[in-house]
Specification:
Shape: globular
Helix content: over 70%
Distance between the termini: 47 Å
Strand content: under 5%
Oligomer: single chain
Largest sheet: 2 strands, antiparallel
Order of helices and strands: HHHHHHHEEH
Radius of gyration: 21 Å
Number of helices: 8
Length: 172
């Protein structure tokens, strides 16, 4: 195997990520889309690590000599996975995209103005987002108050707050 083959491992991983996400999205799971994205990301990462170990650039080299290539493949895959993650989230959470999709499904009759205002009023949008965060496991409700759960999304938020502080020198 040559170095060119090793650069293909992240592409195999992102393909597994996309196919895994499609398969997982068809299952009736109670959790929200973020958890499904993390699971499909892990599937792709496992493929990248497996290929990196099985198809090492230097077949006789031990695991220690393979670590830099494995890390590079995993880092490259993480970049692709981050792009896929954001593309999915933009599609899921974008109000404009959702509105266009609903109007396209409505056909030539369209949707009445009062119905759109009912669906997309401020209170309704807030309630939908809160329900999505609750079912996705990012929030919990106790004594009539919403609280953050410490989990994957919480850590990502902390990471971005830290990056904002370091790179932009702003307060969290």
């Amino acid at each position: 195997m040559n170095l060119f083959e090793q650069t293909l491992f992240p592409f195999a991983g992102i393909l597994a990520n996309v196919l895994g996400h499609v398969a997982i999205s068809r299952l009736p799971l109670p959790r929200g889309p973020v958890r499904r994205q993390f699971v499909s990301f892990a599937i792709g990462l496992a493929i990248v690590i497996y290929l990196s170990f099985v198809r090492r650039p230097i077949p006789d080299a031990g695991p220690a000599q393979a670590i830099p290539g494995i890390l590079l493949s995993c880092l490259s895959y993480s970049f692709y996975g981050f792009v896929f993650f954001n593309a999915l989230n933009a599609n899921v959470s974008s109000l404009r995209v959702r509105l266009i999709r609903e109007l396209a499904h409505a056909g030539p009759d369209g949707i009445a103005t009062h119905e759109l205002r009912t669906r997309y009023g401020r209170e309704h949008i807030l309630q939908v987002r809160l329900e999505r965060l609750l079912t996705g496991g990012q929030l919990y409700l106790r004594d009539g108050r919403y609280h953050l759960k410490r989990g994957g999304v919480w850590w990502i938020g902390r990471l971005f707050a830290l990056l904002r502080q370091v790179l932009l020198r702003t307060d969290p």
